[in-house]
Design brief:
The complex is a heterodimer of chains A (293) and B (184).
Chain A lengths: L1 H22 L22 E2 L2 E2 L8 E12 L15 E9 L4 E8 L4 E11 L10 E11 L16 E6 L2 E4 L4 E12 L15 E14 L2 E8 L11 E9 L3 E8 L6 H6 L11 E11 L2
Antiparallel strand pairs in A: 1-2, 3-4, 3-15, 4-5, 5-6, 6-7, 7-8, 7-9, 8-10, 9-10, 10-11, 11-12, 12-13, 13-14, 14-15
Chain B lengths: L1 H12 L11 E14 L4 E14 L4 E7 L8 H11 L7 E8 L11 E11 L2 E13 L4 E10 L18 E12 L2
Antiparallel strand pairs in B: 1-2, 1-8, 2-3, 3-4, 4-5, 5-6, 6-7, 7-8
Classes of the chains: A mainly beta (293), B mainly beta (184).
Chain lengths: 293, 184
């Protein structure tokens, strides 16, 4: 009898001393209700050559240097194309808002200076039922080659070309992202003086297909395929395979690609070698992100 | 037997919350927290406006936490890295502090006062005892608490990026600024 009562008393005392702590304890840990739209569909604003759906944050500056070399099948003596020198493209892109950025770039191929913009139209968001991200990337470029290399009757607007792409991408999971890029490009004036295949066609279009697959936390395999859909002479598909490596502020991209071009108009209209006959080139991109406030 | 039962019942009655005990409780859900990394070549901040906190004077309980997925350093790529590879927020979602006030406090909060709290700070699965100095300033709607302390990443098993382009300091200054309102 007494044992039972003592146990009950002990239990009561234990309850009194511990329950208040349990009742008046810490705040319940709840996860924040934040924007769950998918970010980082791709590691950088460019996947090999194509613009991706990635938009920059407000105040973010993306600086990239892109390179492609000569064809690998030029052999060991030419260091597999490295000796041919590089087509280099410098570009800066700055986020004006979280959804809108402006860019400026220059390719050494046809000395093309281009102004571009990237507008994030839709963001993939599983919580809101949005399955894809969509951006719009218009650009206008100008060929700044010495007039001596152009026919005498060139007027300034002849040098202008336009590119429009509408990348649509989906991040399927942490590892796999795929993108379709409908593209339309137009050269105001064409002819043999330009580095394009058909000197008689001004407007080209295609739907590029790009993707990346993460193999390690900061390394991914990437690919790109742009079929030659335009009715023009001598166009081949663009095919590129590469590796992306993130190191915090930098994303390094190394790849083999069939085109020497580094901007949309020339990717579609320019020369693309036959990948399986080793008519491809080594290229690499260095992407660096800065926050300017 | 009856006396013992009577004693047990009275003791249990002590559990009934006292109505007055909740008057000295202050909470908030969108406080500001930042960490500042000052390395030789790069200074950057990670900030969040989702700091949630509680100060209960009756129980002398100070409790704060933040969802680390809300920390933003301004660059998406850097945020992604920070959450996935270094803070590992999938496993350790919150940074938390639980402790008590150890300085004398004027419960009427007429003027700005310096306070010291002592307690456990937990991040990335590691807990450490720390002391934090802060200031409580009375405002019309509640109490403004500003405080700061320093942490060392290695103390909490937080890896540093190996490739030094990133420039992340070992020592991080943590600052909070939160307006706590009376809970009723």
């Amino acid at each position: 009898m007494i044992n039972y009562q003592l146990r009950l008393l002990t239990l009561c005392i234990l309850l009194i001393t511990t329950l208040p702590d349990l009742l008046m304890a810490q705040l319940e840990r709840r996860t924040a209700d934040i924007d769950e739209s998918v970010s980082l569909t791709f590691m950088a604003p460019r996947n090999i050559n194509l613009y991706t759906v990635e938009s920059l944050s407000k105040g973010e500056l993306h600086y990239s240097i892109l390179h492609t070399f000569g064809p690998v099948n030029s052999g060991a003596r030419n260091l597999f194309g490295i000796d041919a020198g590089a087509n280099v493209r410098f570009s800066f892109e700055y986020g004006i808002t979280d959804r809108f950025s402006l860019g400026l770039g220059r390719s050494s191929l046809d000395k093309n200076i281009a102004l571009s913009s990237r507008i994030a139209l839709l963001r993939q968001n599983p919580a809101e039922g949005m399955p894809v991200s969509v951006s719009f990337v218009p650009s206008v470029g100008i060929n700044t080659v010495d007039p001596d290399f152009l026919p005498g009757n060139y007027i300034p607007t002849d040098r202008i070309n336009y590119g429009f792409s509408l990348p649509v991408a989906r991040k399927f999971n942490d590892k796999l992202s795929l993108q379709l890029s409908p593209m339309l490009v137009h050269f105001n004036r064409v002819g043999p003086e330009l580095n394009i295949m058909d000197p008689e066609v001004n407007t080209y279009y295609s739907v590029g297909f790009a993707g990346r697959y993460k193999i390690k936390p900061r390394m991914a395999l990437s690919f790109q395929y742009i079929p030659p859909l335009t009715d023009a002479e001598d166009l081949n598909a663009n095919l590129a395979l590469g590796i992306d490596i993130e190191t915090g502020g930098h994303v390094f991209q190394m790849f083999f690609t069939t085109s020497r071009a580094l901007n949309d108009p020339y990717l579609i209209a320019g020369d693309n070698g036959d990948f399986f006959a080793r008519e491809f080139r080594f290229g690499f991109n260095v992407n660096r992100l800065f926050q300017l406030n | 037997m009856k006396i013992l039962t009577a004693i047990c019942v009275s003791l249990l009655c002590l559990l009934i919350p006292d109505q007055d005990s909740r008057a000295q409780s202050f909470t908030a859900e969108s406080g500001y927290v930042e960490f500042v990394s000052s390395a030789p070549l790069l200074e950057f901040k990670g900030t969040s406006n989702h700091l949630t906190g509680l100060i209960n004077l009756d129980k002398n309980l100070v409790d704060f936490y933040v969802d680390l997925n809300t920390l933003d350093t301004g660059i998406d790529l850097r945020n992604n890295h920070m959450r996935e590879s270094y803070l590992e927020t999938d496993t350790y979602r919150f940074a938390e502090f639980t402790g008590e006030l150890v300085s004398d406090i004027d419960p009427d909060f007429e003027l700005e006062q310096e306070v010291t709290v002592t307690g456990t700070f937990k991040i990335h699965g590691v807990e450490r005892e720390i002391d934090v100095q802060g200031t409580i300033t009375p405002k019309e709607s509640g109490l403004q608490l500003d405080a700061g302390w320093t942490i060392l990443l290695e103390d909490y098993n937080i890896d540093k990026p190996r490739v030094v382009f990133y420039e992340l300091a070992s020592e991080q200054d943590v600052n909070i600024s939160i307006l706590l309102k009376p809970q009723d």
